[in-house]
Amino acid sequence: MKHRLSGQTSALLDDESEFDRPDTVAEIAHALQESGYTVHLVEATESLPRWFLTHSVDLVFNIAEGMQGATRESQVPAVLESLGVPNTGSNSTALALALDKARTKQMLHSEGIPTPLWQVFHQADEALDPRLSFPLIVKPNREGSGKGIWRENVVYDAVALRRQVLRVIDRYRQEALVEEYIDGMELTVGVLGKTALPVLEIDFSTCRESGEFFYSWRMKEFQGDDAQHLSPEIHCPARLSPLTTRQAQELALRTHYAVGCDDFSRTDIRLRLDGALFVLEINPLPGLSPVDSNFPRMGRAAGLSYEALIQQIVRLAIERQHDGRRLPGAPINRLAVSRAFHAEEPLEGGRTGEH
């Protein structure tokens, strides 16, 4: 896991939380090379369009989160689409939609997919929707990897609500999403191709001494740190009845298709104490660390090694591109891994970054 200096304030610690670590990039590249592909590592910086104008590749394995802006995760796919370069994963439209939590929830609601009631706050003094009742949770509307979500963001009264909304708006320069807090079991479900992977359960009962009881930024950043009591129990398959398992997988598939995702995604779900399931959000760019990411864990539970999982993502993209006639029938040999991670030694495209 990544470690930070304890003297730094938490508000400064999450700036680079979305970026991939160098070892994750190396593992993806190794898995592709094991399949016989020639692999180039390309930075998702301003020079990325120039690189693809001067280098020929058959397919891009995209894990780039983008560098800035409200639609940053869609930037690399948009560039590749404009250049006619195929890539793994979802297109720019789906990535832009999924990063905006409120718009995603509007889509889910229109499709009849259960999601917690919500309200978007542009100012801290806006009136609370009377349909909402405490406890509530406050989130930045357009962030991922738990950024801007602390245990204090679960609020139980109006004073705490205003304080956290103001904190989000001031720190992240964007609107705050306020939604009903669903007390219950934390679940996540991966989709690979047209198949839902085994449901994964995160049990936070072992983390009581930390005060963290859901996937906050601190929990995600330091998960596995026993000294801080941040080691939740992971169960995959989840400890669910066959019926609830099927329902959770069906919700993940419906969410995947509603948002327009391709190849793979991961949907976060809460199982309320009364047995009702609610989709919290979807991530079309789920973490792929072989050590601590949930998507590879679900792949292993489905019988896929890490190498097989990465290779399957490529196969799905190739099949999709062939169906859309964007790729010729010739074998695919040359791949680029488009990523951003911060390291001391920059690779081909210039500056390097972490996920």
Q: What's the topology here?
A:
Layout: H1 22-34, E1 38-43, H2 48-54, E2 59-62, H3 75-83, H4 92-99, H5 101-110, E3 118-121, E4 136-140, E5 154-155, H6 158-172, E6 176-180, E7 184-192, E8 195-196, E9 200-203, H7 217-222, E10 233-235, H8 242-259, E11 264-272, E12 277-283, H9 294-301, H10 306-323, E13 334-339
Parallel strand pairs: 1-13, 2-13
Antiparallel strand pairs: 3-6, 4-5, 4-6, 7-8, 7-9, 7-11, 9-10, 11-12
Helix pairs in contact: 1-10, 2-3
Q: Which characteristics define this entry?
A:
355 residues, alpha+beta, D-amino Acid Aminotransferase, Chain A, domain 1, Dna Ligase, domain 1, 2 domains, 6-stranded antiparallel sheet, 4-stranded antiparallel sheet, 10 helices, 13 strands, disordered C terminus
The total domain count is 2
Q: Got a strand count?
A: 13
Largest sheet, in brief, is:
6 strands, antiparallel
**How far do the termini sit from each other?**
12 Å
Q: Give the CATH architecture of the largest domain.
A: 2-Layer Sandwich
CATH-level-4 superfamily name of the largest domain: ATP-grasp fold, B domain
The topology string of helices and strands comes to HEHEHHHEEEHEEEEHEHEEHHE
The Rg value, from CA coordinates, equals 20 Å
